[in-house]
Amino acid sequence: MNTESLELAKTRYQAGKIAFESGQYREAVENLEKASALLARNTRLGGEVEIWLVTAYEAAGRTEDAIALCQQLRRHPHSETRQQAQRLLYILQAPRLKRPSNWMTEIPDLTALSDNESQIRIAAKPRKTSERKPPAEPEFVDLSQVNTKDNRFIWLALVVIGLTISYLVWLGF
């Protein structure tokens, strides 16, 4: 394998990871398949690319391809790849649990939203810019109205703290 094909494979691998993380699973599968074809399967990088390819297959709805690739990767020469393949295979072959419908939130189909955008703008009320409220002025408090006679707690706390410090000094701490 020459360095040019290795660099192309790494570029495809990075593009596949980015596409996968942004939710573009078909594009991720394409890039990862091309990267896998350029790399030797028994290398650490080749195994890493194929592990990502397994997750991309599953995300793209190609579970059978993901399981088949995991079964091949269980015999990979790199031990970490074998362990990841074994774990993924366990997850992929696990039985699907039924979720109650009240646990799920139905997401509405928004494909027709761009068609209705002009209708929404017409139906919406235009905002009146002249009805803005001026910023609120700060409210001043008359200090002669503030009750300062009920602050006996502060004096009590200060006396207790003073006595505690005096006691500790007397003990020699």
Describe it.
By secondary structure, this protein is mainly alpha-helical. It has a domain at 3-92: Alpha Horseshoe (Serine Threonine Protein Phosphatase 5, Tetratricopeptide repeat), CATH 1.25.40. Helix content is 61%, strand content 0%. The chain is built from 7 helices and no strands. The protein is elongated and about 85 Å long. The model has no long low-confidence stretch (mean pLDDT 84).
Q: What is the mean pLDDT?
A: 84
- What would CATH call the architecture of the domain at 3-92? Alpha Horseshoe
Portion of residues within helices: 55-70%
Give the percentage of residues in beta strands.
under 5%
**First-to-last CA distance:** 76 Å
| Discrete helix count | 7
Low-pLDDT residue intervals, each spanning 5 or more residues: none
Q: Rounded to an integer, what's the Rg over CA atoms? A: 34 Å
Oligomer: single chain
The biggest sheet, with number of strands, parallel, antiparallel or mixed sense and barrel status, is: none
